[in-house]
Each structure stands twice: as structure tokens, then as C-alpha cells.
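Progress narrative, Year 2. Work on GIY-YIG domain-containing protein from Leeuwenhoekiella nanhaiensis advanced from sequence curation to structure prediction during this period.
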Amino acid sequence: MLETSILGTFNGSDQAYIYIWLSKKHKIVYVGMTNSYTGTIGRAGAHFNRKGTLRKRFVETRGYEVNDVDDILLLSFPLPKTREFTSVEKSYREAVEYLVQKELILLRGKLNPTFDVISWVRLSPRTGNSRIKKLAASIVNSFETNYSRF
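Result:
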């Protein structure tokens, strides 16, 4: 039996997320963002299909299929329910995503086990925005604080 707690991660109605895929056993972290109507659970379907970006990056960096991973977790971080984050325009979401990935790369050596960040994200012109910086720092702080229990 597999038990999955999805809480509100399927709800993307007027909600955007930064999400992190984590496997401590395989030492990987993948950062993404979505404002999909189906939330991070819906986005997971795209990541795990045959041409999904998480699947591809896993094979490229590890040399084997993500199907062999038995400890992968999806961590979802809701973004504010404001137009900057929930609209089709994605530069605000991309800025948070970029800063989270950048900070996780810096943080990885401090955590045990360490990990490789296997996602690829775009630089956004909004990364200097103080609100964006605070959001990203909050997400990274939550990740770091809870890392030992994952």
C-alpha cells in the first residue's frame, strides 16, 4: 500500500506554487514553479511523463530512471494569492524559483546528506525585488528547518 497526503497541492485555482522534488537517498533536489489549475499534483504528471523535464534531468544527471527512486517527496510552497503570481505572466514566479534554486545550491554543503540541484531555471529581471527576495528566503528557510525530518 502507498499512502499519499496531498492536502491542498491539487488546488491551483487562483493559486501559484514553488515546489521542490527531493530524494535524500539519491541526493537530488529539483526546483519548479506552477500556476496550473491542477496545482503541484497536476504539474507532477507533466514531470513524470515520458518527456517530462524531471524525468529527463534525472536520467541526464544520474544515469538511471527516476522510476528507481523510492523516496521522492514533493514539497509545495504556496505563493501569495496576488495577480503578480497567479496570472499568465510568469516573471515573478520565475524570480522566486531562480532565487530558491540559487540559495539551495549555496545551502547544500551545510546539510546532511548533501544533494545536487538538478533543475535548470531562468534568470528573471525581478530577482532584485525585495518582496521576491523575502519570499525566496522564507521558502529556503522552511526547507532547511525541516530537512532533517524529510
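The mean pLDDT is 91. Residues 17-144 form one domain.
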